[in-house]
Design a protein that fits this description.
The longest helix is centred in the N-terminal third of the chain and has 35 residues. 25% of the residues are buried. This protein is mainly α.
């Protein structure tokens, strides 16, 4: 029983550490849902589940493949997120118009694009865990995705946060006429 609780606690810590940035993104999605109606809240939740699920599945597959790779070489996986970041910086185009997320697949895409840190952490964790502990991790992830979505929805509906969408672009700290909570 203690092993199960410690595994669950470890899963919660791993999820929270890798997905704390998703709270901000989810909040922005829920603010957009309240102000524009797109994406719909159910699409945000579904997209988050699909995105995190894809990251976890990819990490589990890579972890299984790494069982044939010698341990010293697996440490080089930490270079992958750095390489992806450098590549993105080199190929960024500031003239591109921002893409608007309108559905569950868009939310999943943003979650996956934002998930390099998830993969970098999940792969070695899944490589070290057995099947039972991996199942506990995935169950905790499923539960915490719901909590993350609820937190994002709550924050997205908070007057101080949703007031950002009504604030003038040149003075974000000024009081908006429609956001009386400032």
């Amino acid at each position: 029983m203690i092993d199960l609780l410690s595994t669950a606690a470890g899963a919660a810590v791993v999820f929270a550490a890798t997905d704390i940035d998703d709270i901000v993104i989810l909040t922005l999605f829920f603010v957009a849902a309240r102000t524009t109606g797109r994406p719909r809240p159910w699409q945000i939740v579904a997209g988050q589940y699909v995105g995190i699920g894809a990251l976890a599945l990819a990490s589990a597959v890579v972890a299984a493949g790494l069982l044939v790779v010698p341990d010293p070489w697996t440490g080089l996986l930490g270079l992958l997120p750095i390489a992806l970041g450098v590549r993105a910086l080199r190929h960024s185009d500031e003239d591109e118009t921002p893409t608007v997320v309108t559905g569950a697949l868009g939310v999943a895409g943003v979650t996956i694009a934002n998930g390099a840190d998830n993969v970098a952490v999940y792969v070695p964790v899944f490589r070290a865990l057995g099947a039972a502990d991996s199942a506990v991790f995935l169950l905790i992830f499923v539960l915490l995705i719901a909590l993350w979505c609820a937190a994002g929805a709550w924050l997205g509906g908070h007057p101080r946060v949703s007031g950002w969408s009504n604030a003038p672009a040149t003075g974000w700290c000024r009081r908006s006429s429609s956001a009386s909570a400032w």
